[in-house]
Amino acid sequence: MGERRALVIGAPNDRFGRLTFLPEVVRDLHRVVRDPQRGGCQPALPDGRDLLLGAAATHRKIVAAIKDAMAAANRDQATLFVYFCGHGVRKAEDFFLIGSDTRPDDVDLDTAFGLGYRLTGLLQSHPTLDGVMFLLDACHSGEVVANPVHGLFSAAMQGRIEFLTATRAEQVASKGCFSRSLTQLLTVGSPRTADPELLAYREHARLSQVPPAPSECRGMAKAVHLSLNGTSDAGLWLGRNPAADLRPALHGTTGADLVAQLTRDWQRRLGPLGSLATLLSSEISPIAITGGPATGKSALLAGLGRRSADDWGMGLDALVSVRPGGTLVQLADELADQLSRTEAYRSGKQRWQQATPITDQDAAPEFQRLITGPLAHLRPGDRIRIGIDAADQLDTVQRRRLIDAAADLPQVILLLTGRRLDEVSPTSRVELPDTDPDAVARLLVTLIDEPETRCQVTTLAGGEWLLSRILAGLWRAGQLRPGTAQLNLTDLPAAFDAAIATAQTAALQAPIDDVLRLLAAAPTGTWMPLNVLTAILERHAARCSATAVHPQLDATAVWARDALVALGELVARAEPGESTERLGPAHDKIATHLANRYGQAVVAASHSTIAEVLIQIIASDEAPVHVRAYATAHLSEHLHAAGRTPDALKHVPKLSTPADNLALWQVWHDRLAYQGENHLDVLTVRSSIAFWTGEVGDAAEALRLAEQLLPDQVRVLGPDHPEVLTTRHNVAFRVGEVGDAAGALRLLEQLLLDRVRVLGPDHPEVLMTRNNVAFWTGQAGDAAGALQLFEQL
């Protein structure tokens, strides 16, 4: 799953007209399609071939090559791209790709490749093909989608099949201009979008405008794109986009995904941008962009991640988003990855390392070591701007630490978004209105050209900025169809349900409902790896109808992707079509709708199912790095959401420094404090806070916390509970650390008697206690007694 494969065919045939340009054009296209940094495709044929050119491109070899390529892609659940440059003829209810040996007076299924007929059979016999796109540079190639052979549409309903053709049905292709423009697009990219990939369903209309084009290509026909099942698959991207409208530091990062997702179809909102520009010019920090849900806060910030933001002097050097339950530790690595691409940060990091002893660097919290330390040592004149989306997802303590840190970094401007950020001065906030009808109306004029539909979508969006974009996307994807009852809607949940119903029709074989149940428990945004989703579906044997026909094939991964594509704008996808794909609900309101649709019990069960798979992933040595990272970071969150808080606390990740661990456990305390200080879960959290307080070097405070905790534990758990005995051990140890070795020894000797009684003389904790008794005997001044105890131990 996730491999992209290409087959490039150049079939000249002088009987149908000379194509003198063809060899050069096809070789250029082949080169860029195979370039890892451009088309990113591997050879489609099992023997490593991927080019069929010239006299060798006979009709039999074309048939065999396409058949073998589809069979191999089906076997390996790969994505296939077939490029054809040559002659095409519409005849006898089919569109034929002409081989180098085909005769004009003898065009049929035995002498040419009948695209519709053969594809219908191939699609039916290859159900685990992970998407296929045919790119046809031939006269009248639009015929294949304008008048498809009977059965092709129904066959394509079982998979993601797309066509990109050089012309409409009635038009002629000219001098390989379609292939030339495609080569040029893959080479230079498209600066009109922030998408890191070039998407056929967005770029096809621009092919005729891609410069530089040969003079004879002026006025070339506009390319036609069609997905046979009505979906638009971001995973079937043409190539990488080297010219994406992104700030350089964001390329290839989660920040790039954020900008691409949030600024697609984005328009500048001059009022809010003007207010933001004023604050930025005054170098105030932090700056907050606040407002209710779906007001466009994130889109406004993400717009500053575009390269074009430099034109207004407002570009960001780093952009990250806080996931639900996120911490500063989780932000530190992402920010450092982006900031390390700027000379200012690299210089500051070097200066901080030179000025800070190694021991202090190692002990520093990760956010200080990677972010605030280096940024506090910037060179005079250096400036850095950092955007943090959804900062209100941080708990109060973490958010306060972040804002306080920003106040100590005069050369750094921190921009935050959140529904409420009261810690930021009102004079440093840009407040977005709950609704912006005028701006939404202007946006929808550019997105929807059908007046009646635009009016209904405008009403449904209620003036909400982001929702208008989502609804427009649903309409363009065919999930809110004009002229049907689906658009006679009065509320947003009805619109989402209509989109889901359309998805279920568009991908009959896909486990739409199973995927939606899991998405209801996934974090909003592109966090959950596709691998996790497919592992869950496989675990529950979520097989589709085709499994009965092909029981030897496990198509779960392919059908999961079918479901995501069919759900369209309801799902956010990062790195679509690749093995590292990540996903989640596209918006909080979509996540809320899914939770309401299935109910609390189902969502909790989904969280529990996800957690069980994450436990297996953590225990495995074979899971990809990004999957293990998600499992480690999110397991405790899913367990907590499943109502399994005691299990969640057992799986709270251990971070790299004591300070970071202390901060994380303080987050859990804030989260669970409503249960009362004597609740079992809160007692567990208090114990960890006391422990990590001591580990950061504050033995006196750790002792105070442990002494407060102990009587509560005894009252709730009983005097012989293992947690009580552990706290007694911690109290004794901290007593010794604050300078009372004799007191520590006395407490440990009492503890040893109780642990032997409760656990038995050979229990590991008993042996550890004996070791500590011996140690503190020595610390109390009795070296001989300590030696004797160690020797007995």
From TrEMBL:
<dbReference type="InterPro" id="IPR011600">
    <property type="entry name" value="Pept_C14_caspase"/>
</dbReference>
<dbReference type="GO" id="GO:0004197">
    <property type="term" value="F:cysteine-type endopeptidase activity"/>
</dbReference>
<dbReference type="Pfam" id="PF13374">
    <property type="entry name" value="TPR_10"/>
</dbReference>
<dbReference type="GO" id="GO:0006508">
    <property type="term" value="P:proteolysis"/>
</dbReference>
<dbReference type="InterPro" id="IPR011990">
    <property type="entry name" value="TPR-like_helical_dom_sf"/>
</dbReference>
<dbReference type="Pfam" id="PF00656">
    <property type="entry name" value="Peptidase_C14"/>
</dbReference>
<protein>
    <submittedName>
        <fullName>Tetratricopeptide repeat-containing protein</fullName>
    </submittedName>
</protein>
<feature type="domain" description="Peptidase C14 caspase">
    <location>
        <begin position="57"/>
        <end position="174"/>
    </location>
</feature>
